[in-house]
Amino acid sequence: MHSGSALANTSVADEYQVKAVFLYNFANFVKWPEKAFSDDDSFYICVYGKDPFKKNLDIAVQGEKVQGRHILIKRSNLLAELLNCQVLFVSDSEASDLKNILKDIGNRPILTVSDIVDFAQAGGIIEFYLQSSNVRLMVNLAAARQVDLVISANLLRVSKIVKE
C-alpha cells in the first residue's frame, strides 16, 4: 500500500491521515465495472457528512491518478450530490441515518467506507476500526459483490471479513 499498512499505528492526531491514505489506496485494490465511471475521466473520492479528514484527504491524493483518471475529492451533506462517486466515505455524523443511506445508494457501484461502528455488518463495504491504536479494516464481501466490485486478495489478506 501507498504509505503504511492495514496495521498502521496511529495517534488520535494522525488517525485520519492514515485513513485518508487508505481511501486513496483502496482505488488500487478494487475493480469497478465500466458503468461506475462518468464521461469526465475522473475518479471521485467523496465524503458524506461532517468531514473528519480536513486537508489530509486532499494531501493524500494530490497529483495522483487511478487507472489513468484524475482523482477529485467531493464533500457534501446531500447524498444525491455524491451518487457518481467511486469511493464514498460516510462520516459518523450520519450514523443515525445509516440504514437509509445504504438503501439510497442501492446497487450503484460505489465502494462505501466508514468508521461507524458495525458499518460493515449493516451493509457497508469497508469499515475502519481501531485495535490497540492501529487502524484495521473489516470488509463485507457480499456487499461488494452485490454492487459488482471486486476486491483484491491483497487487500482481503490484511482485512477481517464479515461473515455472510
What would the keywords be for this entry?
single chain; about 160 residues; alpha/beta; 8-stranded mixed sheet; two-stranded antiparallel sheet; 10 strands; disordered N terminus
Please explain how this structure is put together.
The chain has five helices and ten strands, in the order H-E-E-H-E-E-E-H-E-E-E-H-E-H-E. With 164 residues, the chain is of the alpha/beta class. An eight-stranded mixed beta sheet has the order 3-4-2-5-6-7-8-10. The longest helix has 15 residues. The radius of gyration is 14 Å and the shape is globular. The two termini are 27 Å apart. The N terminus is likely disordered.
Helices and strands, with pairings:
Layout: H1 15-29, E1 30-31, E2 42-48, H2 56-61, E3 65-66, E4 69-76, E5 87-90, H3 98-105, E6 111-114, E7 126-131, E8 134-139, H4 141-146, E9 150-151, H5 153-157, E10 159-161
Parallel strand pairs: 2-4, 2-5, 5-6, 6-7, 8-10
Antiparallel strand pairs: 1-9, 3-4, 7-8
Low-confidence stretches: 1-10
**What about the largest sheet?**
8 strands, mixed
Proportion of residues in extended strands: 25-35%
**Looking across the biggest beta sheet, what order are the strands in?**
3-4-2-5-6-7-8-10
- Count of separate DSSP helical elements: 5
Q: Judging from the principal axes of the Cα atoms, what is the shape? A: globular
The radius of gyration over CA amounts to 14 Å
User: Got a strand count?
Assistant: 10
What is the percent of helical residues?
A: 10-25%
- Would you tell me the overall average pLDDT? 90
Content-based structural category: alpha/beta
Question: What's the order of the H and E elements?
Answer: HEEHEEEHEEEHEHE
Distance between the termini: 27 Å
